[in-house]
Amino acid sequence: MPDTTPRGLTRLAFGGDYNPEQWPEDVWREDVRLMREAGVSMVSVGIFSWALLEPAPGEYDFGWLDRVLDLLHEGGVRVDLGTPTVVPPVWFYRAHPEALPVREDGTRYEFGSRGAICHSNADYRAAAANITTRLAERYGDHPALAMWHVHNEYGVPVSACYCDSCAAHFRRWLATAYGTVDAVNEAWGTAFWGQRYTDLEQINPPRVTPTVGNPGQALDYRRFADATARENFRMERDILHRLSPGVPVTTNFMTALSQCDSLDYWAWGREVDLVTNDHYLITDGRRTHVNLAMAADLTRSVAGGAPWLLLEHSPSGVNWQPRNPAKAPGQMARNSLAHVARGSEGAMFFQWRQSRRGAEKFHSAMVPHGGTGTRVWREVVELGGSLDALNEIRGTRTVADVAVLWDWQSWWAQNLDWRPSEDHNARERADAFYEALYDRHLTVDFVHPEADLSACPLVVVPALYLMTEAAGRNVTRYVENGGTLVVSYFSGIVDEHDAVHDGAYPGPLRDALGLTVEEFSPLLQGERVRVTGPGGAEFDADVWTEFVVPHGAETVWTYADGLTAGRPAVTRHRLGEGTAWYVSTRLGQAGLDALLGRAAEDAGIAPRDGLPRDVEVVRRTGESGTFLFAINHTATDAKVPLEAPGTELLTGERAAGRLALPAGAVRVVRLDG
Ligand code: GLA
Ligand code: ZN
Question: How far is the CA of 163 from the centre of ligand 2 (A)?
Answer without folding.
Answer: 4
